[in-house]
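User: Can you help me understand a structure? I only have the sequence.
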Amino acid sequence: MTQPLRNDTLLRALLREPTEYTPVWLMRQAGRYLPEYVETRARAGSFMRLCKTPALACEATLQPLARFRLDAAILFSDILTVPDAMGLGLYFAENEGPRFERPLREEWAIRDLEAPDPWEHLRYVMDAAAEVRRALADAAPLIGFAGSPFTLACYMVEGGAGGGEFRHLKTMLYDRPDLLHRILAVNAEAVARSLNAQIESGAQAAMLFDTWGGSLTGPAFREFSLMYIQQVVANLIREKDGRRVPTIVFVKGGGAWLEAIADCGCDAVGLDWTADLGAARARVGGRVALQGNLDPSALLASPEAIVREARAVLDAFGPGDTGHVFNLGHGVSRFTPPEHVGALVDAVHEYSRAGRAK
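Assistant: Let's start by predicting it. Here is the structure, written out as tokens:
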């Protein structure tokens, strides 16, 4: 049995247990808005070398917690490490983002696709998770993460982000759905394996990012994204060291399907900034916790505006001491002043704590 966490507020909130205040962590909380991260990345020489060097990945993971009173660390890595481990040849082009040397277009390549062994092909991720967990010394929980099977497929078929249109993938979806289902089935197995290995290595919560599920029609979302998210969640380790391991599912642009997402087996649903948090709470009832959902652009405004908007999000969720994790509706912008993140974290803690005391 491991030592109890000194701050388990996030885990309790994800499980809809009472908390003294609303916990807060931020998607992309370790990133280019922090000068210390920029320095670490420069020492690494490249983004992928940073991801693949456990000591540096640990350093990047912990940097925001050294600055801000965040309630969790999220492992510094990338969702595309999983398809990279499948042999697709991940690289990052200057000003173009991630690219794959060998995108999945040919039927033979899709038929030959296999889920990698994370302990062999993604060992650097697991080593980083173990190193972060040791460094945290149970001060706060560690979140592991992966991309959803559909979001990974978007990059794998397009060879990159595809401008958000996903011409090749959507052509496959309508012309050869059998091939896309083959990719998604392999991805679901690979993602579940990766997340379970992260949990075995020290992650105490797991998050699935479905960045591109919102680009689908309702029926297509259920068939090609949600069905495989359900498979991943169903195969995750749900208890470790005597404690439940909560799962979070975030579908960018998925507000229309909130009830279906809430029924996928997860413990919490992440919301982007377009969702009405109060209405979402009414729609899901007590089925899941909710995470979100400040517009990341609010962090570019003045500290006074940030405090106002943070309070508005907390007010939108409504009264009570269970079931809300404060986060952004997407990742921190690289142009965010670091002190603005500090203002946000303090505002969330102070305003929610004062609300509990009433």
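Now, to help you interpret it: The chain has one domain: 9-357. The chain has a mean pLDDT of 95. Let me know which part you'd like to focus on.
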